[in-house]
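Table 4 source record.
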Amino acid sequence: MYARHLRLVLVALILAALSCAGPGSTPTPDRSDLATSVAATLTSATPLEPHGTTPDIPKAPILPTITPTSPPPSVLRIVYTNGGNIWLIEGVNPPTQLTSSGGADQVLISSDGMKVAFIRHVPIDGQAEIRSVNIDGSGETTLLSPAQFDSLYPLCDFLHHDLSSIAFVPGTHNLMLNTRAISEGPGLIKHDDLLLLDADTGIFTTLFSPGSGGDFLLSPDGSQAAIITPDGISLINRDGTNLRPNLVTYAPVITYSEFQYYAQPVWAPDSGALGVAIPSPDPFVPTTTGTIWRIPAYGGSPMNMGTISGGFYFSQPPGSCLLSYNLNRVAFLRDTATTNIHDLYLANANGSGETLYATGDIQWVGWSPDNTHFIYSLSSPMSLHLGVDGGAPTPIGSCSQLEWIDNTQFLCLSGSYGAWTLMRGEISGGLIPIVSPAGNFVSFDLDA
């Protein structure tokens, strides 16, 4: 009897240990195997319960239903956080308040301009809560609560599970997201999973379990997504099917910190290909390089466009890309003999025709959708300059978080901690103030 009881205890302990193998301690599945079995592992859930509950989540092996939405409206809609709530500016109309629940610090709007998703943190250093609201302020709904984040996977030695990245799938009201773990110590621990969350119904679908997903970048038409890991880039259809694993692989980049580097690709506007500049593995060696890849979305082999001498790791801040949207031009920095002074170069994607454009304490920001103009900072992260391929730069002014409306217009934030103004600018020059939201930090999005 004692021996039988001991065997049961040992089996239970082994099963518990296996369920709690954290990210990085469990072997990552081979993506070529995943390609043949991903459809069988897709899981869906019933609409999630309000904040504070941890429901049982029935799952079934069915593909997610992704309902297309209507085309974007002709009028520009801008949503933004203001004192912890969500506000809307529609065309030339005055701002209107959409929510009053407080705690909002990130906001997104669907491409048809009809659905708004936002992230709440209550308290401010607490876990994320995902909510949605209609564009007229009706139907505010909790989509994923902190308790439901924690119920996604066994917590084991982690304190919580939390949101890592989130974006609307273009042409739908579905949100694609991935998660991370929160531990007592420092470090960014990504689960490398991938989920879909319907902002209308609250139904969520697990596309890839921890260790088999990664960071993601949705194509402009919303039909596909790139999955990025610390050593490769894959493609999937937006419902998780048609996995094309490891189309490009690369040596993990040493960050000399407690996080991993994920490559930062960019999609071509027609969604037919994406490009990426991969830094060489060690950013602190005397000679660094970047390798430029073009990845076709609908068949064909990825093309190694060339390897260029330059600093491609520190040149790419989070959310930016060194390649132009048409994938034909690349920007990069090279060190000079003076500390913190860099040369900004422009070149063709294959490395030919390089031109020295500017020198100084430069940080790259990104290309305009017209593939000719670009933004960089000089001397201060908020001292933005508008460059033009083949022409002289123009100072924009003091602003950050620049987002393009179209080829010639953009939005940005001007000001400082707790005193921000949302500005509208044009490449022809000038910044026009739109609104001054309350809050130490401000998030905004637009449906262009």
